[in-house]
């Protein structure tokens, strides 16, 4: 089907289809990439504390916050021309994540993220909960941040208590215990369907988004179909496969790129953007690629099927679950 500019979350909020990923972007480069992207039409930025290795990089996105004089003057009732920092944040969908270790000190970690990002609220918060699904002892205390719907802001609360020897489903229920508010935005872990089923069977809150690796060599159709049935949007990371991915030179991909007079990367990004209920996060710090990645082509159903056939002979994962130290996490292709 034709690509859409945004998808509707089960919270009622609109999430832009194409966002800028910032994973492993170097200090100095990532803030330039974010600013350039926002100045050129991007309205969705995906950030994560684990992606930063030094304090300077941790503060690299702060320019998009609410701390500038424009907001201060406006709050005092004075007219002042709004700069790009303020206007961009008002129309920006900003996500961040809590790493497994950070969840033990969730309030401090989340407050640190808000400070480092230079903002007073987040549009989407992703608890990375593979640990919560696997470890025998996991605990997280109360965390809070501002979440936003299309027409108002509400204070989001995550609250869990110490869990010992619980099933994956019970751990997920504790992880997603939320106070009674009108907007809840939580992202589920990248996990096998067996854990998903157990978790959602007892969960009081259905996740809004599930972020997973998805490209022609890792289509994850089973997870995608499961999420659709539950009303969960899927965000595709690593849509190109990886840096210097073989998908960029695949004959099927290059043939379509030539047909539409775009880059192979455009075809791979467009593949995800053409799927109902899917958003996609291409990553780059190069101006030309940031601009190019935002160009989405409407692919035909036949072309999408042709791209999916690549997995039959060239399957791979760019981000293998074994990196977490917990083996394959139940994925059938990671045994």
UniProtKB/TrEMBL annotation:
InterPro entries, per this entry? Answer: AKR (IPR020471), NAD(P)_OxRdtase_dom_sf (IPR036812), NADP_OxRdtase_dom (IPR023210)
Q: What domain of life does the native source organism fall in?
A: Eukaryota
Q: Where in this chain does the record put each NADP-dependent oxidoreductase domain?
A: 203-311
Positions of the record's site feature: Lowers pKa of active site Tyr: 97
Q: Which Pfam families match?
A: Aldo_ket_red
- Presence of keyword Oxidoreductase: yes
Q: Which GO terms describe its molecular function?
A: oxidoreductase activity, acting on the CH-OH group of donors, NAD or NADP as acceptor
The UniProt keyword set, sorted, is: NADP, Oxidoreductase
Family, per the entry?
Belongs to the aldo/keto reductase family.
List the PANTHER family hit by this protein, alphabetically.
Answer: 2,5-DIKETO-D-GLUCONIC ACID REDUCTASE, NADP-DEPENDENT OXIDOREDUCTASE DOMAIN-CONTAINING PROTEIN
From the Swiss-Prot or TrEMBL record, give the protein name.
Answer: Aldo-ket-red domain-containing protein
Organism annotation:
Mycena venus
Biological classification of the source:
Eukaryota, Fungi, Dikarya, Basidiomycota, Agaricomycotina
